[in-house]
């Protein structure tokens, strides 16, 4: 029995093209799944900043752009160690800068635990829940705050942009 070589090449080349196209579609599908999972799990629209940081208190404001009226859990870390947890739930009605007085922005305030004299960095994180509460991630507010605690706690001072400002309360 004799086989025609041209008849055998056509099905093989069609099969190779089909397998390559299938592999490309599967790769695109997996990429879609990964991006979709990442977006739902980690993407959120939080904005805010620390307005005050000293040896007694860390305070500021935040807004959850997706749900601006919803109170949000916040966590304070000082020098990368957990210090406190709080809820940002107080309305922020007045601000020196009108741009910062956004509708739905919430104040937060943490009482700082006793600290030894030295320089510190305060970072505030928003606790973001996703997956119906199954996953919780921490998302940092954009800028950490640096402050110094002097030998006497009442002499705590703020470091903002390289300037040392005595805390006033």
Structural notes for this entry:
This protein has 169 residues and is an alpha+beta fold. The protein folds into two domains: 43 residues; 121 residues, Immunoglobulin-like (Sandwich). It is built from one helix and eleven strands. Strands 3, 4, 7, 8, 9, 10 and 11 form a seven-stranded antiparallel β-sheet that branches. It is elongated.
Q: How far is it from the N-terminal to the C-terminal residue, by CA?
A: 100 Å
* Class inferred from helices and paired strands: alpha+beta
Number of strands: 11
CATH class descriptor name of the largest domain = Mainly Beta
What is the H-and-E element order? HEEEEEEEEEEE
Secondary structure layout:
Elements: H1 5-42, E1 46-53, E2 57-64, E3 72-78, E4 81-88, E5 90-91, E6 106-111, E7 118-130, E8 135-140, E9 145-149, E10 157-160, E11 163-166
Antiparallel strand pairs: 1-2, 2-6, 3-4, 3-7, 5-6, 7-8, 7-9, 9-10, 10-11
């Amino acid at each position: 029995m004799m086989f025609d070589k041209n008849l055998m090449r056509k099905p093989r080349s069609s099969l190779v093209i089909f397998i390559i196209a299938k592999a490309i579609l599967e790769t695109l599908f997996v990429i879609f799944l990964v991006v979709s999972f990442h977006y739902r799990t980690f993407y959120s629209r939080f904005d805010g900043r620390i307005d005050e940081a000293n040896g007694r208190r860390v305070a500021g404001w935040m807004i959850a752009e997706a749900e601006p009226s919803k109170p949000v859990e916040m966590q304070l870390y000082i020098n990368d160690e957990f210090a406190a947890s709080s809820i940002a739930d107080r309305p922020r009605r007045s601000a020196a800068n009108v741009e910062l007085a956004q509708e739905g922005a919430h104040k937060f305030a943490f009482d700082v635990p006793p600290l030894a004299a030295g320089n510190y960095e305060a970072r505030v994180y928003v606790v973001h829940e996703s997956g119906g509460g199954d996953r919780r991630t921490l998302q940092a507010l954009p800028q950490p705050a640096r402050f110094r605690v002097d030998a006497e706690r009442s002499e705590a001072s703020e470091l903002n942009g390289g300037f040392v400002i005595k805390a006033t309360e």
